[in-house]
Structures are given as structure tokens and as C-alpha cells.
Model the fold of this input.
Amino acid sequence: IRSRYGLGENRIRVIHRGVDVRDFDPAAVGAERGPALRRHWQLGEGERVVLQAARLTGWKGQSVLIDAAGMLRDQGRLDKAVIVLAGDAQGRSGYVGALQRQIADLGLGDRVRLVGHCDDMPAAFALAHVAIVASTEPEAFGRTAAEAQAMACPVIATAIGAPPETVLAEPMVGADEITGWLVPGKDAAALAGRIADALELGDSARVRLGARARAHAVHNFSLVAMQRATLSVYDELLGSSLNASFA
Done:
């Protein structure tokens, strides 16, 4: 906007998309929803989920994640983790076939699951040990990064497009302030390294990271935050007090 239209910062306002943090709340996910999803995905006892929730299309980076899984397996760092690719193919049968061949060629049939559409994303993120946004082209917002954080799930995202605005990561914040990690796009080795970091987090460290992620999402990316930011623009232009009276 600055370069194309010559506007100064004083005339630009950014309002992030909002997530319903009442639905995406660990406390709101019933005790049976996670186990039901675990059974549906045919996960074994003790298997941890590395979840990518995205429609199956090339620029979402599923193939990069599969390559990263192969590297982790070869390094002996995948442990009992399972890569779950949740999302609709939307008719892209050729792309699905290419992913299936990649999984087979790497010998990852027992470690990578194409599970199709998921109707219960809060339960999916509650089940996940870490959420992946592996996009190879810029995300306009990247809703799943905000939803995962709202569910106290750490996020690994590519540092292109919006994720640097939604995921708190080093070096922008200190190590004790992060809500996830950022990696270069199309870099399977970097992605593998950060997945290993996430899998090696101790339970207490992951709980603290998840709590920060939840607080970050609630404060910055809730529906209420979006609504209030929108009303504030109206107030600024009209001299009204809509935000102050918003319930």
C-alpha cells in the first residue's frame, strides 16, 4: 500500500482475521472428541501427531513436510510421531497420487497419513503435538496458525506472508516468549530440525509454550479483537464511540 499508493503509515490500519476462541479452547473440547479422532485416524497408543491442516494443493507444501519426515526417520529423530495431513483434495487426484508415491518411495507408509477432511479442528489441534504451516507461497493470513495457537498447540510455519505476524518466534522474541518457530519456505531440512525441536520439548516446557500461544491468540486474533479493531476505525473516522459501547 505504501509503495503502490504512496500512503503514509498514519493512513494504514491492519485488522487481522478473527478466530472463535470459545470453540478453539482446550477447555471446550470434550473428553471423547480427541480419542474419537485418534481412533478415526488409526493412531496407535503413544503415537504423537505432527499435524498439517490444509487443503491438498501444491503450494501448501505437503511434499516438503513429507521430505522432512523422511529426513527425521533417517536421523532416528521421528520417534513415535506420525505426520497427519488433514485436508480436502478438492478434485486434485493427480496431486494426491504424487503425494502417495512420494510417501511410498520414502518408505513412510506407517508414518504419514492422508486422512482427508476433518470436521473437528479444535479436537485435531488438541490432539496434535505440533501444527505445521508449510506453505511455499505467501499466506494472506494463515488461519490454522491462529487456530492452533488458540488451542495451545505450538506452530512451525514458513516465514513468508503472514506467519511472521501471527507466530512469535526467535529472533523477534526471546526463547522464553516464543509460541512456535519460523522456517524458510521449501526448506525440508530446516522444517525437519524444528519438528525435532518440538518433539524433544519436555512436557512442562510444551505446556508453558502452549499457554503463551493461547494467550497470544486470544489477545490478538479473537473475533472480539477483530470486531473491536474494526469499530475503532469507524470511531476514528466518524468521531463515534462504537468500540467503547461494544459488549
